[in-house]
Amino acid sequence: MTGESGEATISVLHVDDQTHVRELLSTFLQRLDRDVTVHSESRPKAALQLIETHPIDCVVSDYEMPVMDGIEFLEAVRGDYPNLPFILFTGAGGEEVAAEAINAGVTDYLQKEGSDSYRLLANQIRNVVSHRRSEDRAKIARTRLIKLYEQTDGFYTLDGDWTITYWNQQIAERTGLSTDDVIGRDFWTVFPEAVGTRVHDNYRTAMETREQVEFEVYYEPYDYWVELRVYPVEGGLFVHSRDITEKREKSQELQYRNELLESFASTVSHDLRNPLNVAEGNLQLAQETGDFEHLEAVAKAHNRMRNLIDELLQVARGEDLEEATVSLSAIAARAWETVSSDGADLAVENDIDFKAYQGQVRRLFENLFWNAIDHGDATRIQVGALESGFYVEDNGEGIPPKYRERVFESGFSTDEESPGYGLSIVTGIAEVHDWEIRVTDGEDGGARFEVTEIERPDE
């Protein structure tokens, strides 16, 4: 049961059949390094028993010994303790013995050549034990890391030639490739689609610089986002692979909600501004003329703002989510009541019933009406049914073809004084209903908006 005797102390087992050599080496080592404790044995078999019962950090052995020589002793030690530092310290033998010792797995080979050789031996003992302990700590840390990641995440290891040397169960389940499919194979051969990607570049950076690399990447063959942490280790790379698809989706959902909130705020501002302008204008007229009939328009505008606030709160709370059957003529008439027509007329050519969110579709008509009057200088607005929807057409200035692809963008406007949110609200409402909307020329040169793909009550 060999093991470390403690980070500060070093336990050395010295095996030599000559008593005076054992005593001399023990004296020299403990004088040169106070942290060294020496256990001496004359027979290799007794030394093997001592290794089993004492924590030994390093074995120092002579070569020429009766019954079992140093090479045979080394082979016996290596059979049970393949990583225990073993130094052959002998005055006999030459290159042939050294070669044999190296083949048997000796840690180091030193010749007994005066007192300086003992100083060299003491230094080498310290070096090999320190190296062994560093390796042990790295193995322990790696084992702990493996146990930690085995619970939830995927990981694998690659050697310096990009050969896959380990492949855990989680990464096997994620990729559909078992250990038998990948162990011993070149990583870039198993995953040729990764060559030339960020994975390829970052792995090579970690291998060449020996510095940790972390990055996120979408891996198209398996349709998921993965967070990769690449740790350089002795002889290759340790790769921790974590599926972050759900995390990315939540992040994208949050971004979408933030954009929706920003759009909602713009919508509220735009929808409330129109009746507010009506109220302010009529209030000013009442003050200037003393004609209280203008106050009726103010009250009407205030009532419209109150209704808008209630409707917008319903949308914000998710309460305006039940479809109802609406009449084209009725919903258009209700929307027209809230618009300051400035002498413009509304005509409904024919009527149809369709399914919609009432509050939202009324806002769609309101914004189309306001757009025709405020930006198009229309004097006549016509609403009518289509085979699969309805249209709103005016006789105003129309929308130039070069702007028709952009008029539905949030913030776009050809009027410097307009915030440009009206038509983006229209397209947003259409999208909620899964409708299609397009703009074209009206018969009198104005703008014509066609909304299609509506759902009829009998469908």
TrEMBL record:
EC number: 2.7.13.3
Pfam families: HATPase_c, HisKA, PAS_4, Response_reg
Highest taxon of source: Archaea
PROSITE patterns, per database record: HIS_KIN, PAS, RESPONSE_REGULATORY
GO terms under biological process: phosphorelay signal transduction system
PAS domain sequence ranges: 141-210
Domain Response regulatory residues, every copy: 11-127
List of residues that carry 4-aspartylphosphate: 62
Catalytic reaction list: ATP + protein L-histidine = ADP + protein N-phospho-L-histidine
Keywords: Kinase, Phosphoprotein, Transferase, Two-component regulatory system
A GO molecular-function descriptor: protein histidine kinase activity
Residue ranges occupied by any Histidine kinase domain in the UniProt entry: 267-457
Keyword Phosphoprotein: yes
Protein name, entry field: histidine kinase
